[in-house]
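Self-study notes.
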Amino acid sequence: MDKLQQLELMDKIQRELEDLRNSQTSVLKKVSQISAHNITLGVKLLDQKLPELQYGVESSLTIATELSEAFAAHRTKFFTDNKLAAAVDPTA
């Protein structure tokens, strides 16, 4: 696999990591909505289990965010180290 192909794959991974972050954010919003609805219902099962679910999703979101940021830095270093600016943009 040449350097440009590697860069393209890194860009694809970065988009997928961003999608993962967005998905986790959406799940977290849904859990919050369920918790809000349960204030009216007062179902003990939900009171007991939703905080655990929320904590797990928040942890996953934190990990996904950190991974995305670290991978973006890795991609930028790869781009710079391999002098790919001219290959990606011939006018550079």
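Second protein, same conventions, sequence then structure:
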Amino acid sequence: MNHALGHALRRIGIVLAVLSACAHPATAQPGPSPGGSDAARLAGTVERAQAIPNLHALIVCHDGRVVAEEAFRGPAVDRPVNIKSASKAVVSALVGIAIDKGVLRSVDQPIASVLEASIPKDADERVGEITIGHLLSMRAGLERTSGRNYGAWVSSGHWVRYILSRPFVDEPGGRMLYSTGSTHLLSAMLTRAAKRSTLDLARDWLGEPLGIVIPPWTRDPQGIYLGGNEMALSPRALLRIGEMYRRGGVVDGKRVLSESWIRESWTARTMSPFTGDSYGYGWFIRQVRGHPVYYAWGYGGQMLYVVPGLALSVVMTSDPNEPSREDGHIQALHALLADGIIPAIASDTPDARSMGAD
């Protein structure tokens, strides 16, 4: 064994020996580590991850066991970090729970039924055609409030009204127009329909049952928590959410999210013009080495990957102030999953079952 490989195996061996569970720490159980060349491959992947300048932390969870966990730089894995647009998947979960609880009716509910008071009098009449499902899948048709339009939006005095005053660049239900404003409208709907803040709902519906801390984050001038950006969760908390989805919405024997909502969220509704990947309700979808992969993606490279067919959840957090698409960082993160993590786990999972996005 050469020196570099021996060093890599010693570093990851600590994690593999401890093997904390992906579930709540109180239920931690020891589990088998990948054997032989798989351990070496996973160790090599961790070494490769450390060399990516903007990557802060990596957690790999296989079949309910953490098989790799390391903070290369930045905060520790139990400290909240800005997950940016990966929080769109969190808001999607809150919407699903709200529908199950009857706070919202369905994905076909027009947003005007809740947000009517904030619709400008001179708004395009097509605003009345926008539904919850359109917002979740980024198909509202309104001009985007992300990218170059983000600054003007968050500088406005009424974020909800500003979004609803944007011109239509497609019909409701048309092509994907990735816009944080769409997710913010969902946060506003949750707040008004439940008569509770999005933070309160997140803590009650996700924080308490998952055993995770959800700190306050940015609010708009009307006090509505920003939907789809600036939320802070620790990498371990983000992993808990991924594991909840992987396990069909059940955590520690308690149902938190309906299995049907997970299926709906992981059903392709449109396609990203930036990546070519499909998009459901807050989740991107791609095939990696023959396995359906569902992932939440935040600016800078805040990633939550779930690969149900391999019983695999992966969290990667990065510098939130650096872009991920322009400098190849997101491609490097995808490659860590495709060329390192999945091959190591797949060869250790002979009976891996594939769960499609039907």
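Instructor comment on the second fold: Residues 1-21, 23-37, 351-358 have pLDDT under 50 and may be disordered.
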